[in-house]
Amino acid sequence: MTRFFFDFTAGSQSLYDYRGDDFLNSQAACEFAEVIAEDLKHRRDGNWAAWSVEVRSADGRTLSKILVGMPEQCAA
User: Fold this and answer.
1) Are 30 and 55 in contact (CB under 8 A)?
2) What is the Cα–Cα distance from 73 to 18, expressed in whole angstroms?
3) Model's pTM, two decimal places?
């Protein structure tokens, strides 16, 4: 298992994931990020349209960036 982190970004704003979650590989982490982005797309508690979910490795490297509402852009 490998730990991945899921940050939320929009322009100069960032919400960092300091805990992370364990996945078998980067593809599984990317699929999870797609689910997060899809969930944010349908939330009624705020406008997430300008946001994206960034998948990071434990060493801080960005592996993928999924725009909210456009999960097909995942490229892990």
Assistant:
1) yes
2) 24
3) 0.83
DSSP assignment letter at 30 = H
How many helices (H) and strands (E) would you count in the chain? 1, 5
Indicate the domain borders of the chain.
2-73
- The label of the residue with tokens 């599984």 reads 28
Per-residue confidence in pLDDT tens, the chain, 76 aa: 999 999 999 999 999 999 999 999 999 999 999 999 989 888 877 788 889 999 999 999 999 999 996 645 555 5
> Cβ distance 63 to 56 under 8 Å?
yes
